[in-house]
Fold this sequence. Notes:
The protein is mainly β and 62 residues long. The protein has 1 helix and 5 strands, in the order αβββββ.
Amino acid sequence: MPVDKELLEILACPKCKQPVEMRKQGSDEFLVCTAADCKLAYPIRDDIPVMLIDEAERWRGD
């Protein structure tokens, strides 16, 4: 189940405070920072975004 659109509109990257967008990589879903110099990908586990910098990885997708 994707993250609710209304929730997605208010979430921001905890590191740089820029908007995030939903991305898929294989069967995994992430919220990815839209800032070109940040691009941290926050995992979504059990339909819950894990918005912790320590849990994020640099997005290597498209």
